[in-house]
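Severity: low
Component: inverse-folding endpoint
Summary: output formatting inconsistent between runs
Steps to reproduce: submit the following structure tokens with default settings.
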């Protein structure tokens, strides 16, 4: 990441002429150290916004062509350098949005300055969050859930007929077959998947909300939505039908103030982690010598040098334990949003800090 420089922030003008700068303050407010991963979504949002600006004739075709070319080059550069290696990140510019915009202006000059017409970082960051959830987060979790379900279904096929006791109060209850118990986990994970699918049916494009109360410019929010969310072969959303409810956010004030989508997501993750912790605990019990129902391959257990007879179910214990982290993220985000006035407050920036770990706590390795 590039070192701090003393150049002025692009939006600093008037009062101090941008001459006042405090390094500690700059480091305190930045989110660049944890939001660079949003770059792809930020660029997609910027291209959709620029196409709309051209559609309503606020910028020319030439401006649009320059902006699109510049943004696509920036994306290529970031991808070639690896996200953290790109030279355009400057902490004094605070975040991913400002860095990409500054790099664009540096690259293409005047047309780059027009990209910010009618938008604010407040609707930009809300848009990036929605896209991150839809494009990265849901997909990663779906894949994790499906993979777990499929592994359980394979086990069902191989050994599902084995007769075993079922338990209530952890006391022997009725006899069941192993397949019956496995299907209980598969079903619970299916509900976890449904919870995520319900979230994924709503896009709600916040662009056009501006800083809080929109803009007096003739922005076409539906055009932005269609550009960003509708594939080339899909029909565009055209009029004020019910579908609009799913396309556009209903209030610019709420759209920039809300992190509800992130909260719903972390709640859905918490439920998933809760079910995984129950399954982990069940198998930890089943592999004790007292129960002796199952053994876990050496690759997935650890041993003890002093007690060679032992195999420890560390992976299952970590799945059980990590649930605590996911619950912690839910409580953190609820508390970040608690008591905030309606409109953007900088507190909301903190939503991103544990964002990667929402997902990686639940399905380690992603992120
Ligand atoms: N980095 C900020 C965030 O993540 C972007 C929004 C800043 N908006 C503002 N008015 N300062 O929330």
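Observed output (run 2 of 3):
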């Amino acid at each position: 990441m590039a070192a701090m420089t003393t150049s002025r922030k692009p939006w600093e003008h008037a009062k101090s002429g941008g001459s006042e700068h405090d390094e500690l303050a700059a480091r305190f407010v930045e989110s660049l150290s944890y939001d660079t991963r949003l770059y792809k979504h930020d660029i997609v949002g910027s291209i959709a916004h620029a196409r709309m600006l051209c559609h309503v004739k606020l910028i020319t075709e030439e401006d649009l062509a320059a902006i699109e070319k510049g943004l696509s080059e920036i994306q290529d550069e970031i991808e070639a350098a690896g996200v953290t290696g790109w030279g355009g990140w400057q902490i004094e510019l605070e975040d991913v949005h400002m860095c990409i915009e500054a790099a664009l202006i540096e690259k293409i000059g005047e047309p780059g300055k027009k990209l910010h017409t009618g938008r604010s970082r407040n609707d930009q960051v809300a848009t990036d969050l929605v896209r991150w959830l839809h494009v990265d987060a849901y997909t990663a979790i779906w894949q994790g859930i499906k993979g777990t379900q499929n592994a359980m279904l394979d086990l069902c096929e191989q050994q599902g007929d084995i007769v075993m006791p079922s338990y209530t109060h952890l006391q022997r209850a009725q006899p069941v077959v192993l397949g019956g118990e496995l299907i209980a986990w598969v079903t619970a994970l299916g509900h976890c998947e449904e919870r995520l699918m319900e979230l994924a049916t709503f896009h709600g494009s916040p662009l056009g909300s501006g800083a809080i109360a929109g803009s007096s410019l003739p922005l076409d929010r539906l055009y932005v939505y269609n550009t960003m969310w509708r594939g080339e072969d899909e029909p565009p959303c055209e009029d004020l039908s019910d579908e609009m409810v799913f396309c556009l956010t209903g209030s610019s004030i709420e759209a920039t103030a809300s992190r509800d989508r992130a909260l719903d997501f972390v709640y859905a993750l918490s439920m998933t982690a809760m079910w995984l912790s129950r399954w982990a605990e069940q198998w930890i019990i089943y592999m004790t010598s007292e129960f002796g129902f199952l053994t876990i391959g050496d690759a997935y257990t650890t041993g003890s040098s002093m007690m060679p007879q032992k195999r420890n179910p560390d992976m299952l214990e970590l799945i059980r334990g990590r649930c605590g982290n996911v619950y912690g993220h839910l409580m953190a985000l609820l508390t970040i949003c608690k008591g905030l006035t309606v409109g953007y407050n900088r507190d909301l920036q903190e939503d991103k800090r544990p964002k990667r770990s929402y997902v990686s706590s639940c399905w380690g390795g992603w992120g």
